[in-house]
Each structure stands twice: as structure tokens, then as C-alpha cells.
Write a structure and sequence with these properties.
The chain is built from 5 helices and 6 strands, in the order ααβββββαβαα. With 165 residues, it is α+β, with helices and mostly antiparallel strands. The chain has one domain: Jelly Rolls (Sandwich), CATH 2.60.120. Strands 1, 2, 3, 4, 5 and 6 form a 6-stranded antiparallel sheet that branches. The chain is globular. The N and C termini lie far apart (47 Å).
Length: 165
């Protein structure tokens, strides 16, 4: 059973609730679905994924995502609380063809946020949706910056640039 502290840590690390007040966080928490998985299980497989447009937020454990995005293979390992997966599906992935396999590597707890549930707040609590989406953009930007730095580091290593290697 996940504790409130573990759930809040995951949400804070994800940046989704960075700008929300306590009352707004409580509303968002009510929208989340918590699921538990054992190592070796699959959360999603191509053609067998029932997650729809849900955003996956890792709370505990470790998950590996293998995806083919526009004919390019990618692997992403989620191991820290707050790591996100299925971001493209959440924000409108029907525009891109993505086939993903999500495998549990270590027993885990996952929080799911369905897009339809978040969009239901548009009329009553539009600021929650706005701030969650801002947090999602910040998360994606941080991931892109991190990957860019890794690529530069690898380039420096392979080509012995900048005198560090």
C-alpha cells in the first residue's frame, strides 16, 4: 500500500504539482488511480494496451519503456519517484503512431492520470489543468536538456574534445 508521503514525493518530483495549492492538490489526488505491479509483469504491450490516454507517474519501483516512435526505437528506464511515461499519449498521442512495451523490472507502484479526468476540470478548476500542463512541459524540457547534455558528453568522449578525456 502506498503512503501519502510516497505519493506526494512522486508528484513533487514530477513537477506536475509545483504551482498548485493544497486544495488543488487534493482535487488532483482524487483523479489519480493507483496500481501495483510485480517484477516481470507488463503494464502495456503493443495491441494489448488498455491505458488509453493515461499519464503514468512512477511512485515506487522500476519500469522500462521500449517504444517505436515514428519508426525510431527508444528505451527509457523509469526508476525515480516522479518519472513520467506516456506523455505523448496523454497530451494527444493520436497524432503520432507510437507502439510501446512497458515492462516492470522491479515491483512498483504507479499513479495514472487520465486525460479525460483532468479535462473534466476545465469548467470548474481550469487553473489546475493549466498548472499541471505547465509542470508537464517543464518535465519534458528538463528531460530534453538532460539527454542533450548526455549526448554532448558522449561526443566529447568519442572525439576527445575539450581536453577532458
Amino acid at each position: 500500500m502506498i503512503t501519502d508521503a510516497s505519493m506526494m514525493k512522486a508528484l513533487h518530483n514530477s513537477t506536475l504539482i509545483a504551482e498548485l495549492r493544497e486544495a488543488e492538490i487534493a482535487i488532483l489526488l482524487a483523479l489519480l488511480t493507483v496500481r501495483y505491479y510485480k517484477a516481470g509483469e507488463f503494464i502495456c504491450k503493443p495491441g494489448e494496451c488498455s491505458l488509453g490516454d493515461a499519464l503514468l507517474i512512477l511512485a515506487e519501483g522500476e519500469i522500462e519503456v521500449n517504444a517505436i516512435v515514428e519508426n525510431e526505437h527508444m528505451v527509457m528506464r523509469l526508476k525515480d519517484p516522479g518519472d513520467l511515461a506516456r506523455v505523448i499519449s496523454f497530451v494527444g498521442g493520436n497524432m503520432m503512431k507510437i507502439e510501446a512495451t512497458i515492462e516492470v523490472k522491479e515491483d512498483c507502484t504507479v499513479l495514472f492520470l487520465e486525460r479525460a479526468k483532468l479535462e473534466a476540470l476545465l469548467d470548474s478548476h481550469y487553473s489546475i489543468m493549466y498548472y499541471v500542463m505547465r509542470g508537464l512541459v517543464r518535465y519534458a524540457h528538463s528531460l530534453a536538456r538532460h539527454k542533450s547534455a548526455e549526448t554532448e558528453e558522449m561526443s566529447n568522449y568519442f572525439y576527445r574534445l575539450n581536453g577532458r578525456y
